[in-house]
Amino acid sequence: MWNLKDSAAHLYRQYELVTCINMFEPWEKKLINGIFLLMFVLLVFSSCVYLPSYMDTLIEIIRPAAASSKVDDLTYVPQRISSM
């Protein structure tokens, strides 16, 4: 029966083997893990901030009748450029 500490250590060892960072020095491991952590945090942050608005726009484009009556905003109407 494994406890939480043993499972976390096992998962970290698997992560080291899969990414091949087990052959680096400790300072290199910390640098690479920091970069991976930074990229993961940026991915989660951008998903939480930008993805909801993108999904709302996509749903409005796919099903304009189900969304509010913003059909005029989604249609393209070419306009003539007035000359000076």
TrEMBL record:
InterPro entries listed in its UniProt record: Ser_palmitoyltrfase_ssu-like
Originating gene: LOC108608584
Residue ranges crossing the lipid bilayer per the database entry: 31-51
Subunit structure: Component of the serine palmitoyltransferase (SPT) complex, which is composed of SPTLC1, SPTLC2 or SPTLC3 and SPTSSA or SPTSSB. The heterodimer consisting of SPTLC1 and SPTLC2/SPTLC3 forms the catalytic core of the enzyme, while SPTSSA or SPTSSB subunits determine substrate specificity. SPT also interacts with ORMDL proteins, especially ORMDL3, which negatively regulate SPT activity in the presence of ceramides.
Annotated family: Belongs to the SPTSS family. SPTSSB subfamily.
Pfam family, one: SPT_ssu-like
Keywords: Endoplasmic reticulum, Lipid metabolism, Membrane, Sphingolipid metabolism, Transmembrane, Transmembrane helix
Topology of this chain in the membrane: Multi-pass membrane protein
Function (record text): Component of the serine palmitoyltransferase multisubunit enzyme (SPT) that catalyzes the initial and rate-limiting step in sphingolipid biosynthesis by condensing L-serine and activated acyl-CoA (most commonly palmitoyl-CoA) to form long-chain bases. The SPT complex is composed of SPTLC1, SPTLC2 or SPTLC3 and SPTSSA or SPTSSB. Within this complex, the heterodimer consisting of SPTLC1 and SPTLC2/SPTLC3 forms the catalytic core. Within the SPT complex, SPTSSB stimulates the catalytic activity and plays a role in substrate specificity.
UniProt-recorded name of the protein: Serine palmitoyltransferase small subunit B
Domain of life: Eukaryota
Predominant subcellular localization, coarse grouping: endoplasmic reticulum
Compartments, as annotated in UniProt: Endoplasmic reticulum membrane
Pathway: Lipid metabolism
